[in-house]
């Protein structure tokens, strides 16, 4: 259970695992789409689904325990901005894999997680090597949402990092060390 001065090992572990995975997936996603590195897509989708499996308990933990309290006096506007940023980070971390899954499934590309087929490919019998969308509008919505959420998440991560560095180097409080488990 999280406390004012210390966070639970579960909170800390989920935070860093999800952060590392999401940053990696964002970088890989940008590289895949910009450089058209299609063989990375199955790995990207599989790890995205694993992130979703980790994020659900993290979100439930936050709903149950609330957000950790500030360690010192915090201006109300700064506290609200921190809560908004943390909430948006968590929402984006849930919505990114969901929107990617919607795009992949609805476009006919299926979802395969390390050999476990969650949604099958829908091959187009008239055009060998191509897929047939289940729902083109849903696929387009998923793709657009996934892209917009990705850029939003990058901005939020930069804001989050700036806040952590401000707390550590300017405010000299223990926010960063608390998230490191010290």
SSE arrangement:
Layout: H1 9-35, H2 41-65, H3 76-106, E1 111-113, E2 116-119, H4 136-171, H5 175-179
Antiparallel strand pairs: 1-2
Helix pairs in contact: 1-2, 2-3, 3-4
* DSSP summary, beta strand count: 2
Helicity range of the residues?
55-70%
**Poorly predicted parts:** none
User: Which band does the percent of strand residues land in?
Assistant: under 5%
Helical segment tally? 5
> C-alpha Rg, in Å?
19 Å
Mean pLDDT: 93
Largest sheet: 2 strands, antiparallel
Class based on secondary structure composition and strand pairing: mainly alpha
Family: Belongs to the cytochrome b561 family.
Keywords: Cell membrane, Electron transport, Heme, Iron, Membrane, Metal-binding, Transmembrane, Transmembrane helix, Transport
Cofactor: heme b
Domain Cytochrome b561 bacterial/Ni-hydrogenase: 7-181
Keywords:
4% strand, mainly alpha, 182 residues, two-stranded antiparallel ribbon, 5 helices, elongated, single chain
Word description of this protein:
- This protein has 5 helices and 2 strands, in the order H-H-H-E-E-H-H.
- With 182 residues, it is mainly alpha-helical.
- Strands 1-2 form a two-stranded antiparallel ribbon.
- Helix 2 (41-65) packs antiparallel against helix 3 (76-106).
- The two termini are 15 Å apart.
- The mean pLDDT is 93.
Summarize the structure.
The chain is mainly α.
